[in-house]
Amino acid sequence: MAFKPAAWPRKLRSQEWYSGNSRDAIYHRGWLKNQGYPNDLFDGRPVIGIMNTWSELTPCNGHLNELAQKVKAGIWEAGGFPVEVPVFSASENTFRPTAMMYRNLAAMAVEEAMRGQPIDGAVLMVGCDKTTPSLLMAAASTDLPSIVVTGGPMLNGWFRNERVGSGTHLWKFSEAVKAGEMTQDEFLEAEQAMSRSTGTCNTMGTASTMASMAEALGMALSGNAAIPAVDSRRRVMAQLTGRRIVQMVKDDLKPSDIMTKQAFENAIRTNGAIGGSTNAVIHMLAMAGRVGIDLTLDDWDRCGRDVATIVNLMPSGKYLMEEFFYAGGLPVVLKHLGEAGKLHKDALTVSGTTIWDEVKDAKNWNEDVILPVEKALTQQGGMAVLRGNLAPNGAVLKPSAASPALMKHRGRAVVFEDIDDYKAKINDDALDIDETCIMVLKNCGPKGYPGMAEVGNMGLPPKVLKKGITDMIRISDARMSGTAYGTVILHTSPEAAAGGPLAVVRTGDIIEVDVEARRLHLDISDAELNQRLSVWKPLHDRPESGYAKLFQDSVEGADTGADFNFLKGCRGAPVGRDSH
Description:
eight-stranded mixed sheet; four-stranded parallel sheet; 20 helices
């Protein structure tokens, strides 16, 4: 894609605050100078906001303050003026009821921090899975030159000479305890081995997936996604990112130039090739909505259906992000897609060149980690989008993490009205359930939980686990962690709390699943379904105040990204009227 850089020098946005000798300009400059900045820094050079999601309660991002110093160094070197801005940080492993409830709030907060302050460009410092989409959503809305640098994944976990994947082994070991195959003391011993360095999940969970999506979209420098958090090359990447954003501001290279429909299609195909998280579907739909791109679930199915999953990482495979980096990382995957005719090679990136120029010389150093296509984990990766009378607006399943034997199945529904109902019943040996049944969880979507928590990968009942069964079909309007696995159908839309068909499924109903045919069907007549829906009433009271009310009133369905209905396509970063 041809891009024509803007003329330089020119008057930048920040000069609306700092230029001249008016009372207002002196007011803005004078206060900032109390930190010891010399006068010549206000000479019209690019002011770069380092939007930092560091927080000690966001463990994945706990090292970003250190990384920010390298970003600053790069900005200084390139002749820019760096200012570090702490922004809202939503951690999946600490926020209740779920960090997803606060993704939109974080995006709004960061957008206004960018829109209302004197910055010409932004470095988006992200890591934990909601921080990446929230900051990219904000950047898309403001359309200021922006670039992503991620904190990187933690080192491999090891327990008794076995690789331990963060999240993936949490689910695995938890099930093993319930099945009587692992003691609680052994589980506690394994806990210490799961997270042995700073950084994000070391599996291809949502954080690693979204880092890969940022790179595949062209919003991060090539090679950014996989460098381990503690590797010195992560610091080099941060410094190079700081240098690059200064030139992006001079060129006026904006998110709207990069985040095109072609870029999103590249990212969708990349998600299939890496065995990426189902959460990417919701986040990418929301990001596309912010930049004004018409992206739908059908695009996910169309672009991902014929993409082989070639990255052999947990939860789909056996390795972790360390090995992925050593093997060559995401550039190798993008090169493979390009050679297979599944990459828009001329898509523009933050480097100012095309994505193909960035990856065409990449080399695969380990073909057991990044597999040849003939040895792919699955020949049809991507996301399967299922539809039918149970999911008129769609539901998603990740084939690379599912059991082939369950991809076509007809079973009796065992229904849990919400997550509390599930927790109350699942360990009861009197529960009428076996491995042929289909577990159904309601009221865990955007409005229902609220926020759409990662509870869709319901643990199996102990009575089934003790038979050696490790997977069953599970259907819900919830999400699941990108580190999880199994034949799990998620994001069922419309959700139960909004009166979708899922709300009226009853225990004993027969459900048909046919992934190849993309079919999800509740085996009752249309008349019966309509009759049930006509008498349905919401299970939970609606909040009457605060952000929870704003969320309930404004959040859209998972099928369109669960963003707020008043925020789509709102681009532009006007300078606010000075009140001083």
